[in-house]
Amino acid sequence: MEKKALENVSLVINEGECILVAGNTGSGKSTLLQIVAGLIEPTSGAVLYDGERKKGYEIRRNIGIAFQYPEDQFFAERVFDEVAFAVKNFYPDRDPVPLVKKAMEFVGLDFDSFKDRVPFFLSGGEKRRVAIASVIVHEPDILILDEPLVGLDREGKTDLLRIVEKWKTLGKTVILISHDIETVINHVDRVVVLEKGKKVFDGTRMEFLEEYDPRFFTSKMLVMRELVLKREDPFSMSDDELLERVCNS
Asked: Is 147 a catalytic residue?
């Protein structure tokens, strides 16, 4: 008997929205986002883009997706060629250099210092940045990041989330898959939780803290939940203020 990766999942993603898709391993997160990105076709149901039913190849230039392990999407021997691939594929008549330089600088990589380096030999954080640059270089409307914080230290996570915030200022859509809800929730508008292929929660980050099962929350998130229940805004507080609340709880 075949197991369904997703079952009756209906999801509306609005322009300019930043969404966290969470859930345990095997819950269907990656399958959902590959369908959204047009990389695989659903066996039933449909993906509507701007209200119209479209095939994957029709929407791929509008979406950039970076996978959990950057090495899985690398193929070029130079960072420049890695980042330039989407431009050459979608816009073969355009000069890739200005777009590659812009994308690299957007993610915090100096063009002259990194363009000729081998992507496979970079640090974990640098690989992640190259992967993101390679999927935003063609200026898509939607950025999808699959577990972007895995393997990064605190500084690396901060740098990556700074890229997410910059993308949001452009008014573009971001979809994040992450197990690190405590870190990511400060940067998203909405949380969607999948369980065994089904959507079990879909609401704002405030609603998530208030309504979702607190047994799965970290100490910091429990304090944030208490603040929400007291009608206080935990997202207006600094990390130091929240840490003090955690220590005193």
From this structure: yes
Per-residue pLDDT reduced to its tens digit, 45-60: 888 888 888 777 778 8
Which of the residues 17, 147, 207, 226 is marked catalytic? 147
Backbone torsions φ then ψ of 169, nearest 5 degrees: -65, -20
Residue 164 in contact with residue 20, Cβ under 8 Å? no
Q: Which helix (H) or strand (E) holds 240?
A: helix 239-248
CATH superfamily, with its number, for domain 18-205: P-loop containing nucleotide triphosphate hydrolases (3.40.50.300)
Extents of the domains making up the chain:
18-205, 213-249
Nearest partner of 58 among 68, 48, 67, judged by Cα: 48
Please state, in angstroms and rounded to a whole number, the distance separating the CA atoms of residues 42 and 145.
20
CB proximity list for 57: less than 8 A, separation 6 or greater? 38
- Is residue 16 predicted with pLDDT exceeding 90? yes
